[in-house]
């Protein structure tokens, strides 16, 4: 009397669930990649041949509408010195990278440089301002 098994094992592998997972992952990565914006402030940087690399501590942005941003926070020119000092007060020689739109007036750039120079004079530090540019083609 041979005992037979009622449940037979199916050796076939269903790929339909695997393809569903691949499409879901593809859609997820496509959506999240469009949300990533490394430079939230759109700027047209001036062109230059010089290459100066430095460890940046703070980034200041000036857009074509003449708005000043420290990192991603909008700042009034009168408060710029206090906000910059709050970010670099623990360092003796920090680098402030100035990313200015090429259509921004020179006066706005001078406002940022003056704020860093005032911090240097008041607190006897050696912070510097570096103007970011894009390479010439």
Summarize the structure in words.
With 137 residues, this protein is an alpha/beta fold. It has a domain at 47-135: Nucleotidyltransferase, domain 5, CATH 3.30.420.270. It has helices at 16-35, 80-88, 106-123, and strands at residues 47-48, 58-62, 68-70, 73-75, 95-100, 128-131, 134-135. A 5-stranded mixed beta sheet has the order 4-3-2-5-6, with helices on one face. The protein is elongated.
β content, as a range? 15-25%
If you consult CATH, what is the topology of the domain at 47-135?
A: Nucleotidyltransferase, domain 5
The CATH level-2 architecture of the domain at 47-135 is identified as 2-Layer Sandwich
Order of helices and strands: HEEEEHEHEE
How many beta-strand segments?
7
**What is the number of helical segments per DSSP (H or I, 4+ residues)?**
3
Brief sketch in words of this structure:
With 137 residues, the protein is of the alpha/beta class. It has helices at 16-35, 80-88, 106-123, and strands at 47-48, 58-62, 68-70, 73-75, 95-100, 128-131, 134-135. It has three helices and seven strands; from the N terminus they run αββββαβαββ.
């Amino acid at each position: 009397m041979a005992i037979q098994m009622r449940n037979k094992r199916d050796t076939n592998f269903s790929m339909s669930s695997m393809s569903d997972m691949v499409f879901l992952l593809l859609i997820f990565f496509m959506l999240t990649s469009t949300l990533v914006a490394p430079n939230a402030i759109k700027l047209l940087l001036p062109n230059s041949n010089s290459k100066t690399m430095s460890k940046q501590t703070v980034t200041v942005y000036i857009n074509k509408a003449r708005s000043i941003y420290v990192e991603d926070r909008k700042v009034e020119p009168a408060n710029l010195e206090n906000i910059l000092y709050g970010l670099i007060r623990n360092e003796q020689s920090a680098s402030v990278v100035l990313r200015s739109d090429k259509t921004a007036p020179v006066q706005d750039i001078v406002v940022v440089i003056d704020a860093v120079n005032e911090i240097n004079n008041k607190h006897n530090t050696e912070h510097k301002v570096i103007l970011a540019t894009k390479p010439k083609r």
